[in-house]
């Protein structure tokens, strides 16, 4: 189960306070076509009320991508959006969700589950008129729990092609969170991409056993560079800073992270939650929301995953022929002509270091 080992989170960030209770809502619209009636003004032109519930700080890239998509919908005038981050575990998520669902009565609650999987599903069962949309390694649960995950293995493969081509030492690396399926498939896709272009490439994989511990991630990256790695995939925050310090190629994750290291970041595997968010908003507004697996909306084919623009000036220049090759592979993936395998096994030879949970 993806991110299933996410059990606790450092509290170094101030928790965002819950917003005050909103005005009383109208009665739910009738169910259309078997969908779930929302607690709000479904079927009308009124804005939907959406609440984001995040176990970790939104500075953590995974939650940050979801938050960014919801902010875009808010700024476009589609929703009223409030959120709480750094909620944590050990019952805290269930407490917050019950408080928000019972008091604010949002139309949609969206966020990360995984380590809070059971809590989210219990609360959703108690509030069947609210659409719950959560990251999950499990399946949807009727009538109101939809699930999603980030499926950015396709751009991760392209990052591997770039890394395998640019390395001078034939040693490339990835510093990642936990060895869970969601992360393993990125590491394996990156490795496959590197080997597709460079059979001599050795890929070093380090897991820091934390979702958000930039200091440990940076130290793990520095150790890889010390072992000869000169192109490194920053699956977790903190790695790019090490790449900048040691002046090696870096590859970002979740969002375009070029600004962290303008000279060193070549590209990033980008997750875009907007296709998922827009689909759910349309369903709830129409009164046709049903529990489902939203996986396809996070793939390159539907715009949920992409490769950030290639930084042709990284470390003195990326060859134009390499940029053209990667752009060609990207087009093949989007058209379906090239399929990137989903391999969720823990990478062989990977090592783990102890980070903050």
TrEMBL record:
It is found in: Cell membrane. Residues 62-288 form the ABC transporter substrate-binding protein PnrA-like domain. It comes from the Bacteria. Its main location: membrane. Keywords: Cell membrane, Lipoprotein, Membrane, Signal. GO terms for cellular component: plasma membrane. It holds the Pfam family Bmp. This is Putative ABC-type transport system periplasmic component/surface lipoprotein.
